[in-house]
Amino acid sequence: MAKCDICSKDVRFGLSVSHSNRKTNRSWKPNVKKVKIVDNGTTKSAHVCTRCLRSNKVTRAV
């Protein structure tokens, strides 16, 4: 599951372009970790991207 439960960041698709200008499909996946977070006083498990973890958008459960 490559989708953040906090900011809804998910997979993006595009083209990989070689030196000879040949194009093939590729994807960019977010760096998503499964962590335990505190949500409204309860602890739950969620898929959170590392940007949300780093910017303190969620509080990790101890």
TrEMBL record:
Signal peptide: none annotated. InterPro entries: Bacterial_rp_bL28, Ribosomal_bL28, Ribosomal_bL28/bL31-like_sf, Ribosomal_bL28_bact-type, Ribosomal_bL28_sf. Transmembrane segments: none annotated. The keyword Ribonucleoprotein applies. One of its GO terms (biological process) is translation. It holds the Pfam family Ribosomal_L28. One of its GO terms (cellular component) is ribonucleoprotein complex. Keywords: Ribonucleoprotein, Ribosomal protein. GO terms for molecular function: structural constituent of ribosome. Belongs to the bacterial ribosomal protein bL28 family. PANTHER family: 50S RIBOSOMAL PROTEIN L28, LARGE RIBOSOMAL SUBUNIT PROTEIN BL28A. This is Large ribosomal subunit protein bL28. It comes from Anaerobacterium chartisolvens.
